[in-house]
Specification:
Elements lengths: L2 H70 L1
Length: 73
């Protein structure tokens, strides 16, 4: 095998590696973006659940205290 053909093969392999690396880099960046979006959605869902719980607790306290007040009178 001549020196030039060996260099051509090495150059093709190097280019193939670089292309693969770029492709995987793009995939990793897209997965990171998707993870951030899903994380933000989960945070909003958890905040909605938290506000719902606080609202339910405030209504429950007010109804409990009104029952106690009516029984004491």
């Amino acid at each position: 095998m001549s020196q030039t053909s060996r260099q051509q093969i090495e150059q093709r392999l190097k280019m193939a590696r670089e292309e693969r690396r770029e492709r995987f880099s793009l995939i990793y960046k897209m997965l990171d973006f998707l993870g951030v979006v899903l994380g933000v959605i989960c945070i909003f869902i958890l905040l909605a659940l938290l506000f719902s719980l606080v609202s339910w607790l405030s209504q429950d306290f007010s109804s409990t205290f009104s029952l106690i007040r009516t029984r004491l009178q």
